[in-house]
Amino acid sequence: MNEKGLSIVKNFRPKVICYLTFLTLGIFGGSCVAEIVVSIPPHASLVEQLVGDRLPVHVMISPGKSLHTFDPSPSDLVKLSKAELVVVNGGVDAWIEDLIIASETQASVIKLIDKVDLPLVSTDHDNHDGHDDGWSHAGHHYFGPDPHFWLDPIVMIQIVDLLEQELIKVDPEGEEQYRLNATTLRKDLVILHEELSAALAEVAGQPFVAYHDAWGYFADRYDLKLMMSIEPFPGREPSISYLKKALDSVRASGARAVFAEFQLDTRPAKIIAQSAGVKLETLDPLGGFGDRPSYQDLMRYNAEMILRGLSN
Fold it and tell me: Which residues contact 84 (CB under 8 A, 6 or more apart)?
């Protein structure tokens, strides 16, 4: 267990014991209904569209919150302990692996990044982190596939296939519903991809400056030229010298916009956009709230923001 995981478990153990005791005594009431726990909103949206009202779905990352500042509550561990299925992205949500151990859950756990066939992502952009391969998250560099694959609707069709099979395993009585909903959802994702392709064709080949290394699959899928990421280590405030290098790169790239993100501090992006004299737009890699509650809404929103930022 890593240092962060140990800290989480140590800090929460007394509260969780109390919470579980109350549940055992029946103070909170309610029945022990099977539940699906999902680490991030995009995958939770797909699960919800597959299960309908058949099973409750709990998302670990609250809408609008960042993966990089996640602070679990005792109820999160209780949800894990009662879950029938836990859906983990892999990489960006490594913290959930320690929570799964701490919860002593008997649930089936599917780590999607280990199951999905991922395309190669272009790596010729400048992210100023001093690494030539792998990817960065929360101040650490990792080797292996980029875990932000949910931002590619075509890859998410594979995720629907995986979720369909896992749901049937944990709830065989719902097989007919899961297969029917999965067929519908796959069609929806194909339509979504076609919509995004048509809309973003207008800005194909345009330089694309993202806030952090989450948009490689998206950029490759829709023929955008991902030049750089402003902040290679999300959640860590960049230095003045680093901002200057990023500003020089934005000016040299010819990009028409800089893209911030809702879940992260927007000040570095605002400073660079203002200094470079380019537009500032805000993307959302996670969604789950506001006018983008579903995965499809989220992706349409991001395409709209990119189109607005990169258009003349």
Answer: 34, 35, 36, 55, 107, 108, 170, 171
